[in-house]
Automatic annotation (TrEMBL):
Protein name: Gas vesicle synthesis GvpLGvpF
Segments of this protein annotated with the region Disordered: 235-272
Subcellular location field: Gas vesicle
UniProt cross-references to InterPro entries, sorted A to Z: GvpL/GvpF
UniProt organism field: Frankia casuarinae (strain DSM 45818 / CECT 9043 / HFP020203 / CcI3)
Length: 272
C-alpha cells in the first residue's frame, strides 16, 4: 500500500465532505492525517500507477476542495509515503514549528493563474505592416535570410513584451503579489504565464478584469485557472524581491512550479 500526500493544512482543518476519491488503483478516499498543529491530506492506494493528465486534474480538484476549508500548502504532484506513520514522522513532525505560521499567513488568500498566448500568424500580421522589412525580398544568401528571420522574431518578442506589460499593469493593482510561472522572452514563449496572489474578496474584480481582457483582445488565447492554494507563494506569501517582486519585475524572467516540498524529502514523487 502507498499513501499519496496532497497538501498540508492546520490540524483543525475540516475534512472535505463528501470525501473525494484520490489517485491510484483503486483510488482511496481523501482524508486528513492529524499530528500536532498540522494535518496532511492523503489517500491510500494499492497501486499509484502511471501519473498523467487525469491524475493531475484530480490532484488539483482535491486541492481546491481543501482550499474551501482554509489555507493549504500543496505538496508536489505524485508525492508518496510508505504509510501514515511516515507521514506523521517524516513530514508533519519536522514542520510543526514553522508551518503553522506559514499557513496562518495564507489565511484568506488564493492564487490565480493566467496564461496568454497569441497565434504567430496574428502577431506577424500586426508587426510587419509599417516595419522596415515590408517589401524586402529575402536574399538567396542563407546568412542574410537568417538575419532577416531573427529581426522579425525580435519584433514579435518586443510586441509580446509590450502586451505582457500592459496586462500586468491592468491586473497588478488587484493583487497582493505576482510572479512568472514560466520563462518569457523567447520566440516560442507565451505572451504571459503568471501567478497572482489575491485576497478572497478581490477574486470577483479580478474575474471581471480578465473578462474585459478577453473582450478587448479576441486574438489572445487565454487560460485562466483558480482560485488555487498559494502554490507559487508557499514559501513567502508576501513575495520575495527579485523575479516575483511586483514593484520591479517585468514579464520576462523566472519560472514556476507545482506544489511545495520541504528540504528533507524522504518520499518518492513525480513532478508535473
Amino acid at each position: 500500500m502507498s499513501v499519496i500526500i496532497y497538501g498540508i493544512t492546520r490540524s483543525g482543518h475540516p475534512a472535505p465532505m463528501p470525501p473525494p476519491p484520490g489517485i491510484g488503483h483503486p483510488p482511496g478516499q481523501v482524508h486528513l492525517v492529524r499530528f500536532g498543529p498540522l494535518a496532511a491530506a492523503v489517500s491510500v492506494t494499492a497501486d499509484v500507477g502511471i501519473l498523467g493528465e487525469s491524475e493531475a486534474v484530480r490532484h488539483l480538484d482535491i486541492l481546491q476542495r481543501l482550499l474551501a476549508g482554509g489555507p493549504v500548502l500543496p505538496l508536489r504532484f505524485g508525492t508518496v509515503a510508505p504509510d501514515e506513520a511516515a507521514v506523521c514522522r517524516e513530514v508533519l513532525a519536522p514542520l510543526a514549528d514553522e508551518m503553522p505560521d506559514r499557513l496562518d499567513a495564507l489565511e484568506g488568500l488564493v492564487e490565480l493563474h493566467l496564461d496568454v498566448e497569441e497565434d504567430e500568424r496574428s502577431a506577424l500580421t500586426e508587426v510587419l505592416p509599417g516595419s522596415p522589412f515590408v517589401g524586402v525580398t529575402p536574399s538567396a544568401d542563407l546568412d542574410a535570410r537568417i538575419r532577416l528571420g531573427q529581426q522579425v522574431a525580435d519584433l514579435v518578442i518586443a510586441r509580446r513584451q509590450r502586451q505582457a506589460d500592459a496586462i500586468l499593469d491592468l491586473l497588478r493593482p488587484l493583487a497582493l503579489s505576482d510572479r512568472p510561472r514560466r520563462p518569457h522572452g523567447g520566440a516560442d514563449d507565451p505572451v504571459l504565464s503568471w501567478a497572482f496572489l489575491l485576497r478572497d474578496a478581490a477574486v470577483d474584480a479580478f474575474d471581471a478584469a480578465v473578462a474585459d481582457l478577453r473582450r478587448a483582445c479576441p486574438y489572445f488565447t487565454i487560460e485562466y485557472v483558480g482560485p488555487l492554494p498559494a502554490i507559487d507563494f508557499a514559501e513567502d506569501p508576501t513575495g520575495p524581491p527579485g523575479a516575483g517582486d511586483t514593484a520591479d519585475a517585468d514579464a520576462f524572467g523566472g519560472t514556476g512550479r507545482w506544489g511545495w516540498s520541504s528540504d528533507s524529502d524522504i518520499w518518492e514523487g513525480n513532478d508535473q
